[in-house]
Specification:
147 residues, globular, 41% strand, Nuclear Transport Factor 2, Chain: A
């Protein structure tokens, strides 16, 4: 009986360790995906947006408008306008990640800087892992009033 309990405990411990290890790996991957996205977005890279957003995205902007991936990608159709847009640099800190199997919530504070103008936002995204690829299915951006 004691051997059986010890075996069950060892199996449970291994299972918990495996789950935690996978969550740690997924947290690292999601953090890297976020930083890669913000770098690509800072460079107006359409491909970055194509990879980051899922086809069934629901995006709620800080201005209170709601749209999907198609509307985001449509913003890249006028190449002259994209090239003439002032460069904005995006960075993330205070990153929080909660993982629920193939679903993850990523929340962070984003710094948006265009020239000397700086604005901060709280962003949160719901990532879904499909076919081994994490993509955003829901996004919420909230402008933080100037402090």
């Amino acid at each position: 009986m004691n051997k059986l309990l010890l075996l069950l405990f060892a199996c449970s411990l291994f299972t918990v360790q495996t789950i935690l290890s996978q969550q740690t790996q997924d947290s690292i991957i999601l953090t890297q995906i976020l930083h890669n996205f913000l770098e690509g977005a800072s460079n107006n890279d359409r491909d970055t947006h194509e990879l980051f957003w899922a086809e069934d995205l629901i995006y709620t902007s800080s201005a209170g408008t709601r749209f999907g991936k198609a509307e985001i990608l449509a913003g890249f159709e006028n190449e002259t306008e994209v090239l003439n847009t002032p460069k904005t640099i995006f960075n993330a800190d205070e990153i929080l990640i909660n993982i629920y199997g193939n679903m993850a919530i990523v929340a962070f504070k984003m710094k948006s800087q265009t020239g000397d103008a700086i604005q901060y936002y709280y962003n949160s995204g719901t990532f879904l892992k499909r076919n081994g690829i994490w993509q955003v299915v829901n996004w919420q951006a909230t402008k933080i009033p100037n402090q």
